[in-house]
Write a structure and sequence with these properties.
Blueprint: H1 8-39, H2 49-76, E1 86-89, H3 90-108, E2 111-115, E3 121-124, H4 126-143, E4 147-155, E5 158-165, H5 172-181, H6 194-205, E6 207-208, E7 211-212, E8 214-219, E9 226-232
Parallel strand pairs: 2-4
Antiparallel strand pairs: 1-3, 4-5, 5-9, 6-7, 8-9
Helix pairs in contact: 1-2, 2-4, 3-4, 4-6
């Protein structure tokens, strides 16, 4: 009997294919990062440097999407997949983010500022939250002029992450999509996008004392551009 759409065998095949694609993209991304580091000193004299920087941005964007698809597969295809919140020092989280984005931001001439209580520890799934924030920073690369700001603060019993840029702000359609996906729409039938859907699912999976996480998009943050907001209980 042939496998029916949605069968466990099909889910497994698709997940395996996505995993192989992600590994290939990761190799390409690492190669581009090495080339950019080697060319950094003579960037102004190398006409290929901006093209390589743009290629790195696109490969990171694609890698983000593949990672999100795998995470969603684990949620939908394997409902028993463990959600693993742990106590995370914010200093370590920010250091991982800055390290992972450093070469891309340098190659694009973008400054990343961060502000957070360095001694604060919060409980959440570190891998999932890192994925959401990395995607938000990569998205901000698209909109910003030359600066991105990561602000983390405790607000009303929630931990709030803000990724801000100094671009012209999100277009109205994206602001609307951010509002709708926060209400739990089906990303397959709406234009909210995989990244927003993934971020919303990660936020909602974090629950504490009757409260759950949320996401929001807005314009005119501290840098007068776009702002992605993730709140966790």
């Amino acid at each position: 009997m042939e496998d029916q759409p949605g069968s466990p065998e099909l889910f497994m095949f698709l997940a395996s294919t996505v995993h192989d694609m992600k590994n290939s993209i990761s190799v390409l991304s690492g190669t581009l990062e090495n080339l950019l580091v080697q060319s950094e000193g003579a960037a102004q004299d190398n006409p290929a440097y901006p093209q390589m920087a743009h290629m790195l941005y696109q490969t990171k964007r694609l890698n983000d999407n593949l990672i999100q698809l795998l995470a969603l597969y684990k949620e939908v295809g394997k409902p028993g997949y463990p959600f693993e919140p742990t106590a995370v020092p914010l200093r370590e989280l920010v250091e991982q983010l800055e390290s992972g984005q450093r070469i891309l931001l340098q190659s694009k001439g973008i400054e990343l500022e961060s502000s957070y209580p360095s001694d604060l520890i919060w409980t959440f799934d570190e891998d999932l939250v890192l994925g959401v924030l990395a995607h938000a920073i990569n998205n901000a690369v698209r909109y910003t002029q030359d600066k991105i700001r990561l602000v983390i603060a405790e607000n009303d019993g929630m931990l709030e992450f803000r990724v801000e840029d100094n671009g012209i702000g999100f277009p109205p359609s994206m602001l609307e999509a951010g509002t709708l996906v926060g209400q739990g729409i089906n990303f397959m039938t709406n234009s909210s996008g995989l990244g927003l859907y993934f971020a919303s699912e990660v936020a909602r999976s974090h629950k504490h004392r009757g409260r759950h996480g949320s996401i929001r998009l807005e314009n005119c943050g501290s840098l007068c551009g776009g702002c992605f907001i993730l709140r966790l209980p």
